[in-house]
Design goal:
Elements lengths: L9 E2 L10 H7 L16 H21 L6 E4 L2 H16 L5 E5 L4 H12 L3 E5 L9 H7 L4 E5 L13 H11 L2 E5 L18 E5 L10 E5 L25 H39 L3 E3 L10 E6 L4 H7 L3 E2 L5 H6 L4 H5 L4 H4 L2 E5 L6 H18 L1
Parallel strand pairs: 1-11, 3-4, 3-5, 5-6, 6-7
Antiparallel strand pairs: 2-8, 7-8, 9-10, 10-12
Helix pairs in contact: 1-7, 2-7, 3-4, 7-12
Amino acid sequence: MTEKTLKLPIYLDYQATTPLDPEVFDAMLPFLTEKFGNPHSVEHSYGWEAEAAVEFARGQVASLIGAIKEEIIFTSGATESNNLAIKGVAFANHPAKNHIITVNTEHECVLGCSRSLENMGFNVSYLEVDRLGMIDIDILQDTITDKTSLVSVMAINNEIGVIQQLEAIGQICKDRGVIFHTDAAQAVGKIRLDVDEMNIDVMSVSGHKLYAPKGIGAIYVRKGTHIIPLFDGGGQERGIRSGTLSPALCVGLGKACNIAGNNMCKNLNYIKKLSQRFFDNLSSELKYLKLNGCVLNRYPGNLNFTLLGVKSNLLVADLRDIAISTGSACSSAKHQPSYVLKAIGLEKMQIEASIRIGISHVTDVDEIDYAANHIIECVKNLS
């Protein structure tokens, strides 16, 4: 394949969002047309058909993370799931317990929830990360008190791709009688997750990070874990999340989870090869290239580089045929420097010279080579 036959621009921002899988679209389509029933209408066949589809999808989501379907609650996405998890657990355990623990590199919605709880009188501890982006397990252990109700730690960081020690964190929380929540928006379907093995009590899931539609997500809530709902309504979803569900969106998320589970190992191995090829191409030509975050405990589809001597915003603007980012979609939208990169010790000049590359199982070798060559060319021109 030559560059002329490549479909441009090349998309390499898969942490921001993913395209809808064609199989997911096909599964959804009937529920956008003739199968339009309300899944909560239990008096007739239209409602029964929709309800059955929603419950089947619920089982598909559960299967991917080692849960049972009764523990899956559909939401609008990870932001709602994170709010429901953090605030819902905090409210349910207050006033007996008024302390939660999270990490200073969490997604903005988790940090926003935490700040809101602080404004309500809760105590929040923000764990720092080391230069690799990892938390210190011993410090977590020492931070837990008899007033701690919740520990919330992201599975895979959306900016630098590091994978936290979920099993170790989960075991500590179990031993100390603390609920463990993980924002797994960037992890579900990409790496193996098992809520029982990892002692995860609550997990947030996002559809559009998983080749499902935008506007759908889920929250796993272990049976016996008490959560206060954030809004009132008809009592759907075990009374935790009221509101009429969209069968089409639920079916889409379920199908995406099914596809991801069936292809996870193959996809991960393929992405590892592409990631290494991309890194090798860049590092062979660019002297001042540094990979941010832990090299070993990371998801290979997320590459965050610092290219010293280059302003990343100028580089991204020059790369008209390649869709990449300078950080998370939230930070980019607000034009703010990355607090994640600052947390791992990067100085302002280094943060302003960093880019994030997202690689998918739908990315091909020619796209990777094209992107690497053009990044190298642009960096040399800007240096």
